[in-house]
Structure formats: structure tokens, C-alpha cells
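re the bet — no i am not wrong, look at it urself. input seq straight from the record:
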Amino acid sequence: MSKIYLDYAATTPTDPRVLKAMEPYFCQKFGNPSSIHSFGQETRKAIEKARQQVADLIGAHSEEIVFTSGGTEANNFALKGAAYALKDKGNHIIVSTIEHHAILEPCKFLEKQGFKVTYLSVDRDGIININELKRVLRPETILVSIMHANNEIGTIQPIAEIANIIRNFRNSKSETLNSKQIPNFKFQTPLFHTDAVQTVGHLPIDVGKLGVDLLSISAHKFYGPKGVGALYIRKGIKIESFLHGGEQERNRRASTENVPGIVGFGQAAELVKKEIKKEIKQLTGLRDYFIKKNLAEIKDVQLNGDPIQRLPNNINFSIKGVEGEAMLLSLDQDGIACSTGSACSSSTLEPSHVLLALGLSEEVAHSSLRFSLGRYTTKKDLDYTIEKLKIIVNRLRKISPIY
């Protein structure tokens, strides 16, 4: 039986070229980067090369990249670091209702610490309401965090437009203060963070054009190793350190660096930068083919997420009258891997908070599947998947009490 992997949004296989770059740093080049002898300086040099490679991928300066253990740590670092650094300027944070749990859970934690969080609603396609954002911004707002693209439905948010709104709000605050209190004072708040874990490596990213202050990345989403990521912190932005101990990462993130992981991260970033245009074209074609064929060949199917402003590799369907978990397990028995949503919440039986935020009923939300394509996906894989899915849906619908 052939094995077909269509869950690239959960994780990707490490590219062999990435693994090759990492291998020497396990046994041969093993020095602690904080050591001043030649062993340590050799690995220090490798880390700084990787830092530049990651920076080049997103249009940043190398000193603006702080390595972390992954996207979750980067998100926690951004939210908690900004909140604690700016608590004397305000206590209000704005996020969307469809953020990843790596944003929503830190927000719950911060609410317990006395911070106030506003959760922006989204429309049927998963895009935030810009006018609502304008209405809820207030003088004590210190941070806005809106994900670049959603991990479940693939919808891409208008990040540059959001950044412009925040910039104009900062300017209006500064003008008010300049006229009354401190001439030429410029507000830095609210800061703007975006969780770009699903977009870095899959869309061209330029932090300058996006207009963000903070941006989270995870290597394993674009053929790098697991357990390593980064937080982009725009030059001049000060946030509270998340881990305390040594002086690594310019005193911003204590802990001996994961040298092999960081080297692999850098190599993956360099490969993506070279290959991303070709990959976007390939995946967009496969995505659209899969969507069109499924909608045409299976009755009572709806596409979730924006049909245009979506990731090139993301497909999320609700298939009426069938439980998503039942379809997932049946597909797995046929050698096909997909998901019912975020891998980080796959152990819960609760319907997706993302799909519910779109206005879907619990029944429809429970009938959803996410297929995410990748570098090794072929049209043959998709044709096989569609044929198996048709058989599974027909079988399950025959025994469904709700169809």
C-alpha cells in the first residue's frame, strides 16, 4: 500500500540537503558557542551564518533575529515579553478569535495577570474586520497580534493594511501628546506582532513591507528540523527577556544554543529563498485542482477559508453528514495522512475554534478535513486521495443518522 502524506501544515520532512548541513554539528563540530576557544568559535560562526540566512529570507537584519525552540516559544516571547516591557504604558492587547493556541493560551495567562484582551471577530472567510480593529484601539493598547495566515483554513490576513492602521493610531497619539505635553515625542505603542509560522517558507515575506515589529517563525514548517524557530524583533524594539540565565542571543534568550538545529534552520531558509517561486506555482496549481475536483465529484461539500487569499498549499473542506475523525481514520487505513485541524489540538474532541469563529455550526465543524500539500505532493497522490475519499464518504453517509 502506498503512503501519501497530505499534512504538511502540521510538519514537513527534513530536506536531505538540510540534514547534510546539520550532520557535522552533532559529533565533529560540537563546541559550545559561548566558549572562547576554537571549538566554540567554530560553532559561533555557524550560528551567525544561519542567523543571516534566516534574516535574508524575511528581509531583516541579522541582529533582529533571536533563535528560539520553535514557533510556540516565539509567540510566548512576543506576547509576554511585550506585555511585561510595556505594562507601565498600558494593559490592553488585541488578537483575533482564530489565532493558534500558542497565542490564545498566553493571552489567557496574561489576563490572569491583569491584562485586558480584546478578541476580534472574523468574517465567513476568516478575515478580521478592519473597522472593528479601528474601534477597539485605545490609548492603553500596547500590543496587537494577528496571525499572517491561519493554520487550519489557510486564510491570509491583510497584515500590511493592519500595520498601517496601527501606525496611524500611533501617530495620532503622538500628535495629541506633542500639542499638550512633550513636543516631538513619538509613541512606539501599540507594537504589532504576527504569527507567521504558516507563511514563512510558503509565501514571500518582507518584514519592512509588512510593517510588523515582531514576527514568529518555525523551521519545521518548511523542511527544516523540529525544535528550532525564531522571533524577529525590529531594531529599536525592547521587550522583556523570556528565559533568564546566560547571556546568549545578546542577552535576549538564555540557554545554550541548539547548534545543529540552527544550522539546519539556516540551510532550510536559504533553500526556500531560492526555490519559493517555483514551489508556490506548483502547489497553487495542485491546490486548485484538488479543490475543483472534490467539489465536482462529492456532493454537499463546502470549502472553508478565503478562496483567493489563502495559502498555496491549504485545503479545508466540510463534508456534510460525515464525522471528520471517521474520515481521517478511514483515509489513514488507506495510507493517506491528513488532519481535522491543528496538530497541536488533535487530542481534543471539541470542534475547531477556528471553524466556529467563521459561523459554522458544531455539526459542520465536526465534519471538516484539512489537506495540506508540500514539496513532494504529486497529482497522482491527489487523484488517489479523491477516489478513496469518495468511497469513504459514501460508506459513512449510508450509516450516518444525520445525512
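see?? The two ends are 31 Å apart (CA to CA). told u. also The chain has two domains: 4-11+276-398, 16-271. so pay up
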